Here is the input.
Amino acid sequence: MQEAGIRQSLTSIIPKIEAIVGREHVTTAVEDLLCYAYDATNRHCRPDAVAFPANTDEVSDILRLANEHRFFVVPRGAGTGMTGGALAVQGGLVMVMTRFSRILTIDTDNLVAEVEPGVITGHFQEVVEGKGLFYPPDPSSASYCTLGGNVAECAGGPRAVKYGVTRDYVLGLEVVLPSGEIIRTGVRTAKGVVGYDLTRLMVGSEGTLGVITKIVLRLFPFPEVVRTLSVVFSRIQDAVRTVCEIIRSGVVPRTVEYMDQAAIRCVEDYLNLGLPVDAGAMLLIEVDGSLSAVETAISDLTDICKNCGAYQVHVASSAQEAKDLWRARQAISPALFRLGPDKINEDIVVPRNRIPDMVEWIDDLRKRTGLTIVTFGHAGDGNIHFNIMLDRRDREILEKAESAVEELFRQTIALGGTISGEHGVGITKAPYIGMEIGSAELALMKRIKAVFDPNGILNPGKIF
Amino acid sequence: MQEAGIRQSLTSIIPKIEAIVGREHVTTAVEDLLCYAYDATNRHCRPDAVAFPANTDEVSDILRLANEHRFFVVPRGAGTGMTGGALAVQGGLVMVMTRFSRILTIDTDNLVAEVEPGVITGHFQEVVEGKGLFYPPDPSSASYCTLGGNVAECAGGPRAVKYGVTRDYVLGLEVVLPSGEIIRTGVRTAKGVVGYDLTRLMVGSEGTLGVITKIVLRLFPFPEVVRTLSVVFSRIQDAVRTVCEIIRSGVVPRTVEYMDQAAIRCVEDYLNLGLPVDAGAMLLIEVDGSLSAVETAISDLTDICKNCGAYQVHVASSAQEAKDLWRARQAISPALFRLGPDKINEDIVVPRNRIPDMVEWIDDLRKRTGLTIVTFGHAGDGNIHFNIMLDRRDREILEKAESAVEELFRQTIALGGTISGEHGVGITKAPYIGMEIGSAELALMKRIKAVFDPNGILNPGKIF
Here is the structure.
């Protein structure tokens, strides 16, 4: 979908972009373009140029230029997105936000921080932890993804069970609109309801409504105690039933992650951590809070798990042991490539009590299709990461996989779920958005997009 | 501000409205119009007619008719709003949503409920409590306000310190757009990021972007234990300093309410509960969670309060005693009318550590102006309810009060705050919105309004 009046080449505009950000912060060298051509979807879209602005005015000037000369601008953080949000699918200028790397304030009195969008999420977490504070959202890519990307995609992570997702932490933003206008949204206080909620409209808008240049984030006090439990089951059905029982019981763990047998075996093969390769499934549960509250929770959780058929409930006895367990969880994504050179990764959510149905359905799909399917994810939220490992060059398998994904989405919607829990729509799910969102709603979203970006210069081809 | 082409009288349209909702559900009788002419601002705007639709299609048909014949429609819940959101300031049809009174589902497995907007908040809380669940938002008007109104205004309440505001509980909505189109937003699951966040755009939009006809709400397990503490200080400055110390300590009470001396005396005079009328200020603190966690929190809080100069820290020993303390808190608003026949009520928020500055500034304002000023509110959020009691017929005092409010807002913004924490903008704060929101942001909001409501038929004259 090429917008009317959008230019194909940036060559004549480069000097103007250089005049804005400085010659050393623009590149058109092929080797550089290739570096900014991909994201975690492993698709490649070579931009025409890459610019690295350093402040809000530079972002604004670039966007004004883009409207004047009608070229596409694609904002980008660390490129760790799972649905192609940062890909220049129609060429144009990739605007890399990594020079916006300052933590501007950490207000320990009011539990609020102001940051630039290029700050690495994991770095920010370490810095606030050093001040006794806690920023809960923890996408698996936390050690290299940026807070700006997290806001644009509304990133989640294991701790969402108790602490919610990025949306729940963004109090306010500074945004450069596609027109180049600079706006400030939201508040720097605990509450605020003045005017329409532009803040949450920006969160999860996948870089299509504006470029985020500052973020005001809410923080929590760092929890006194954190404990990790690994729970092993013979049967996956027992594991997922346990998840429902935990939520129903009123205990609120901060994470309830699950790995199926294929995921366990894959990671064990990769890291040799001594994982139970004959288990049907494993849960990785974390609880936090005061020492007494955590002890009570562990005892309650142990009972629930055993009653649901767990044959091993183990509380990590040291920080190192807990770290190893999380290392296993975080290694799933890379380890999967032992099963095939390419991955189709989906991120569906169903109501928590429908996870057993979904798991059963996936098992049947695996049998029916013979595809290599691995599932793991944030079971406490009903959020399942569904992976098909394959070689994309095998056309027959690829077609089978694509049709399996479509079936998966239909089943997800049938169970009352959503086709994206925390990865967004981007380009990979755009073909399926109509399964979940009706035509009136999509038309409304497109009209909102047109209000923000009348010339369609910002991040084209995404979402719809 | 009269929109172009909007009619002044509904007389000829009434039969068409009757055809939609039934003759018995439309009225133009003066005594009925007067009943729907006011809200908690105590201002009166007589509508031309009042209709009581019972389902989504009827709402849709009325809005289509309004576009065809160009008349104003003002949606209304229980009329408990504090800023005039439900007032027909330019006449037209008031659409009362109280017949949408069904709790459709309470899903105890997934901790989700689906309700109609006319359900009374307090009733909903009781019903979910009966199933061991908890809906935390607790506006003071909970026993008569509606969930639809809560969503439209993004209502808060004392428990926001720990549990957030209405926004944090709305997973999805069914909305009739001003055009009459019916849309469904959001998800029925714990997570979801597909398309723009229309759900949060609707929350707090004060009935200007659409009429809410269904609400999907997130629930929590009901807390095991709740305890209430009353803490008494000689000096208000010590009380507000205590609030900062509590938040900084990492203890997270669910409420930290404060009452100044004027509020204490006023309530005592009204209810004779034995409140400490010589105290400079009182804090009402509530903690919830497991028994052990609550006990630890009470001990920590007692230490903090005493170290900050509290001369009495009392833990309510029975549910009845706790209820009496809350009765005192909830009686402030009605009790204030002992100090004057009219009330100007404002709802500002400052960063928590600026409350001492704000309280000092208000004290100075009281001395400078001689106005009867009473403050109380959600100190744990930095959210202060500022009240001037007066007789509006006294023009001199009224002018002095209005200028004091303007000064208050300027000071709030200067301290990094917001002019509305949980009451919205409506008509009472509309003249001041430009103090907080810039012209680019306001222009963007107006363009969004135009996308939703091109003919300007829905709830005109509000926010901006």
User: Anything to note?
Assistant: The longest helix of chain A spans residues 395-414. DSSP finds 16 helices and 18 strands in chain A. Chain A has a mean pLDDT of 94.
